[in-house]
Amino acid sequence: MTAHTVTLALEGWFTKPLNKLPLEERSCAEAYIKNWSELSPSERRERAVEVDRQRAEQDAARLTHARSEQARQNESPAEDAEKLRAWWDVTMAADHWFSLVDVDPLNAAMLLCRFNPNSETVSEAESNRTDQTGPSDFLQLRRRFEDWSRAETRPRTLRDWLHAAKAMPEERYHSWIDEYVDAVDVLTPGVPPWSAAPLAPVAPVATTEAQAGSEKQQAQGRRGWREVAWPYMVAKLCDGQYATAKELDAALRAGAGVPESPFDKGEGQNRGSLFVREIGRPLMLKTIQNNWQKLREAARS
Predict the structure, then answer these.
(1) Pair (111, 216) in one structural domain
(2) Which of 38, 45, 183, 284 has its CA 20 to 30 A from that of 255?
């Protein structure tokens, strides 16, 4: 079709039968106005105008998407991290909850299932699903957190509860909180965020051998994806020529499941994700993108 629009291409032919149209115009009519012979000349024109409108909207949507994607790719890791931090600060009041010296177990369970206690209720957490967690995940985390709080009474920050959840691989929590921690780490490298101090000094308590073993296991369980997967990711980056975080993510997915890889291919609710085997959590492409500059620097050193 040499004309820019269907209407222009068929101008002067709307009153003609389909078999009287030249080859190019007939092909256009057959492609865009399927029931030509059943329509009046005015209806054929209306249909052509409508087709042009739809095509213009589709072209505009594609252009907008392309510009948005280009702008996103041109963002630095810091810019991307700042957007993530701002988003979760607004939607989850993350900065508020991470700044508190003591977060109770109920609020912690809600937050780790992506429910903001400032704007959402317990009943909503008990009955609604998010994109990654369901009511049963919230109830199990709540029971585990409340049990731990009764067994060992002391102030706990949201980071403490997050560490506890990481030590419970059988429990599921929402990855938004890991995204937020990673974003803050990109923006303030080397600065431990939210290192809140206890409200009052805690007197030393005699520790039994069983308690010591339990605490040791819990400390080991606090290993995050960096401790588990970072060396492998840096080595992978050294071995291959990956220009973007997305290319590295694809290579990690391709090698997932082999013994030397810390990753498995996600299954069930984690299908399609890069799953960190030891900690039982998915590693999102967004997290790799946020840490892309640090990974490249580590690979060059």
Answers:
(1) yes
(2) 183
Which residue range(s) make up the domain with 28? 6-74
Same domain flag for 100 and 212: yes
18 in any annotated domain: yes
Q: What confidence tens digit (pLDDT) does each residue in 87-141 have? A: 999 899 999 999 999 999 999 999 999 999 998 899 989 999 998 999 999 999 9
* pLDDT, position 261: 92
To the question of pTM greater than 0.70 for the whole model, the response is no
Q: Are 213 and 81 in the same domain?
A: yes
Same domain membership, residue 133 and residue 53:
no
Which residue has tokens 């790719």? 73
